[in-house]
Specification:
alpha+beta, Arc Repressor Mutant, subunit A, 2 domains, 9 helices, 42% helix, elongated
Length: 196
């Protein structure tokens, strides 16, 4: 099967695996692996991480939401948060282009793919909450995204322009409730900023 036919069959997928290619072509996985590697070299496929690919044509047409879904897949489990979520909810004047931030429990890691950066910040398991699944995207509420940023900021692990955040767009009662699980250092910073 030629690339145009293969790309048509994969076009409905945001991302795919070697197994998907093997199934579409009716070939064994080793052959599909070789084919994927060749198509990456030719610039037809983009390798996102081990055994996760996207069509180059599709990548160029991705929406913000598509990039959010890809971020969720690059590190499992994870959810969109920090300034990326605050920008999405229009709580900050900072607009990040080609930079997507997520929270994870596994590790802090950064992926750079085709000039787009996916940044994952690790937090304690007990703070891994306050997000929902919307349109197949795991994303923090705006209040939890704010608290995630404050948590990392309070420990010197995150650069943050506090003046860019419109506190009036946040539910302070929800913040107060969510804040109970955070360390004292974070609580102090949040109380000072939000006056709660």
């Amino acid at each position: 099967m030629k690339y145009p036919e293969l790309s048509k069959k994969l076009a409905g997928l945001l991302y795919f695996t070697v197994e998907d290619v093997a199934s579409v072509l009716g070939i064994n996985e080793n052959s599909a692996k070789v084919l994927c590697a060749r198509y990456v070299q030719r610039g037809l496929f983009i390798r996102l991480r081990k055994n996760l690919y996207i069509l180059k044509d599709r990548w160029d047409k991705n929406t913000i939401e598509d990039f959010f879904r890809l971020a969720n897949m690059l590190q499992v489990p994870s959810y969109i948060s920090l300034m990326t979520a605050l920008s999405f909810y229009e709580v900050t004047t900072q607009v990040q282009r080609g930079f997507f931030e997520s929270i994870s429990v596994k590790r802090s890691i950064r992926y750079e793919i085709e000039g787009v950066i996916f940044n994952f910040c690790k937090i304690k398991k007990e703070l891994y909450s306050g997000f929902t699944r919307q349109d197949n995207i795991f994303i923090a509420s705006k209040e939890k995204a704010f608290l995630d940023a404050m948590y990392l900021y309070s420990f010197g692990k995150y650069a943050l322009d506090i003046d860019s955040i419109d506190i009036n767009k946040l539910d302070l009662k929800m913040i107060k409730n969510l804040l109970k699980d955070f360390p004292e250092r974070t609580k102090k910073v949040v109380r000072d900023i939000c006056r709660i």
